[in-house]
Write a structure and sequence with these properties.
By secondary structure, this protein is an alpha/beta fold. The chain has 3 domains: 12-352, Rossmann fold; 353-425, Luciferase, Domain 3 (Luciferase, domain 3); 430-526, GMP Synthetase, Chain A, domain 3, CATH 3.30.300. It contains 15 helices and 24 strands. The strands form 5 sheets. It has a 9-stranded mixed sheet with strand order 2-1-10-9-11-12-13-14-15, sandwiched between helices. Helix 10 (265-277) links the parallel strand 11 and strand 12 (289-292). It is globular, with a radius of gyration of 23 Å. Bound molecules: adenosine monophosphate. Adenosine monophosphate (AMP) binds at residues 172-173, 221, 293-296, 315-320, 324, 350, 408, 410, 422, 425, 514.
């Protein structure tokens, strides 16, 4: 027997109407390049998003056409996040930190017909636009305003999209192989937004009363869904523009009374160092929590924020392919009453999945592994906001299992309570004498040493053991530590054969376009030198 409920389509115009109707007076604030603040309301933003939808149609774009953005985090980018999909087009966020050759490939592969670009990024666009099929270049500080002023926002009509039509696309920032496009649907975006709201971490909750500052760039995996989440809830949004240094961010947190923020660990390491040095300079009493993800948040950093500053780090895990938020480190059951050390152990893991997301891990022979906190295997995931394929990349079909799970490429163990613990990307795991060593665990432990600012551990070839770990270390300013001291620091917590023989002291760890350790580059730097 069939149920008799409406076949209501989950599409983004619903969010647009909701925020305009109920939260129109609430604020969206942007820090401009000159560091002043631009302020307007959700009502203004939605009106301009509708105008954008109408204007793109007037340019001759058709349903399903891809419209790229090459922008920092600001209110016009927010308008594009809503206006493009609500016009029936597909928002394609381009990563402004990529090489022009990669951008040429990505924009061509996606078939972008138009691009909205910050004035300051037009020199970058000029380096690749001729190699793409982009017909319309719309400069934010220039043509964009003209485009919007030339149309009537009230001419916008909900295109009555099918919920499975594409709303947005994003290419993975993978460090190997060609970038691959993930095509989010209206349905997956709406469900992800609801899922993130429902899975509000650790009872901190996010609501209309919050002020959210997404540090995560809007060109990285939907800005982790914050533009849509804030729009759905009517929460105040604070966009940092291009000002992502710790000092500017702390200043914005204080001035705009930010309660919730999100970004990759390298950002928070910088912020922690600054507030450790000057603990009384900023009033962060309103900050309820910060979502940290994209790479592993070191336990020492999580504990440092909480113990020295009373600030909550919420650790999250996800991928471009998972929209991206798939799990958050909540304290479930009796862990809420556990001692602080135990709580930090769990929060430093990658958490439990959001509602509607399911996980398992399997060994190289395909056997499903037990959730014993020990057995390491590849994490597989399924759920309504997990990619079911890559855009026009049939050769990657083997990333999905025959029974419908996505193979993440992350090597994990799953704990009896269900917590994920990421040990490595499968290509980063160190295989020594037939056994696996987790680079992430060694890095986390090293970053707890007071002299260490950053640590990245990579595999280097070894004639006897196949591979051995090498630790690249950035020391804190003015601090000293020797390889022997660091090895002795690790020794109590690890098996002897896990300890790196080699430590390399470097000025900085190379980073990817979204701020993760770039291990391929480290391997190129060090793999040639014999141990
Ligand atoms: P991206 O698609 O660029 O967001 O990269 C996704 C990958 O980042 C995942 O497959 C993980 O390897 C890594 N990652 C994301 N969040 C975390 C986390 N909290 N801890 C460890 N690794 C993470």
């Amino acid at each position: 027997m069939q149920g008799q409920m409406m076949d209501y389509q989950l599409t983004l115009p619903t969010l647009l109407r909701r925020s305009e109707t109920y939260f129109g007076a609430n604020e969206i604030v942007t820090r401009l390049p000159d560091k002043s603040f631009h302020r307007y309301t959700y009502a203004d933003s939605c009106r301009r998003a509708r105008a954008l939808a109408v204007a793109l149609q007037a340019l001759g774009l058709e349903r399903g056409d891809r419209v790229a953005t090459l922008c920092w985090n600001h209110y016009q980018h927010h308008e594009a996040y809503l206006g493009i999909p609500c016009g029936g087009f597909v928002l394609h966020t381009l990563n402004l930190r990529l090489h022009p050759n990669d951008l040429a490939y990505i924009a061509t592969h996606a078939g972008d017909r138009a691009v909205i670009v910050d004035q300051s990024l037009t020199p970058l666009l000029d380096l690749f636009v001729d190699r793409t099929k982009i017909e319309h270049v719309i400069v934010v500080e220039d043509g964009y305003e003209q485009l919007l002023s030339g149309v009537d926002p009230d001419a916008w009509r909900d295109p009555e999209l099918d919920e499975n039509e594409a709303a947005a696309m994003c290419y993975t920032s993978g460090t190997t192989g060609m970038p691959k496009g993930v095509l989010y649907s209206h349905r997956s975006t709406m469900l992800h937004t609801l899922g993130v709201a429902a899975g509000n971490p650790m009872g901190l909750g996010i609501s209309e009363r919050d002020a959210i500052l997404p540090v995560v760039p809007m060109f990285h995996a939907n800005a982790w869904g914050y533009p849509y989440l804030a729009t759905m809830l009517g929460a105040k949004l604070v966009y940092p523009g291009p000002h992502l240094d710790p000092e500017s961010l702390l200043d914005a947190f204080e001035r705009e009374r930010v309660t919730w923020t999100a970004g990759v660990p390298t950002i928070w390491m910088g912020i922690l160092a600054l507030i450790d040095a000057e603990p009384d300079r900023w009033d962060l009493s309103r900050l309820k929590g910060m979502l940290v993800g994209g790479s592993a948040a070191p336990r020492s950093m999580i504990a440092g924020f909480k113990q020295r500053h009373g600030l909550n780090v919420v650790h999250g895990w996800g991928m471009t392919e998972t929209s991206p938020v798939a799990s958050t480190a909540q304290l479930i059951g009796d862990l809420q009453e556990a001692d602080e050390d135990t709580q930090f152990d769990y929060i430093a893991m990658q958490g439990v999945p959001l509602p509607l997301v399911e996980l398992r891990h399997r060994d190289v022979d395909g056997n499903i592994l037990p959730w014993d906190g020990e057995s390491m295997g590849e994490l597989e995931i399924r759920g309504p906001w997990v990619a079911g394929g890559y855009y026009d990349t049939p050769e990657q079909a083997d990333r999905w299992t025959s029974d419908g799970w996505f193979k993440t490429g992350d090597v994990v163990s799953l704990h009896p309570r269900g917590y994920i613990q990421i040990k490595d990307r499968s290509k980063d795991v160190i295989k020594s004498g037939g056994e696996w060593i987790s680079s992430v665990e060694l890095e986390n432990a090293l970053m707890a040493h007071p002299a260490v600012a950053e640590a990245a551990v990579i595999a280097v070839p070894d004639p006897k053991w196949d591979e051995r770990p090498l630790a690249a270390i950035v020391l804190r300013e003015g601090a000293t530590a020797t390889a022997d001291e660091l090895r002795a620091f690790l020794a109590p917590d690890f098996a002897k054969w896990w300890l790196p023989e080699r430590f390399e002291f470097v000025a900085e760890i190379p980073k990817t376009s979204v701020g993760k350790f770039k291990k391929t580059e480290l391997r190129e730097m060090f793999s040639g030198i014999p141990a």
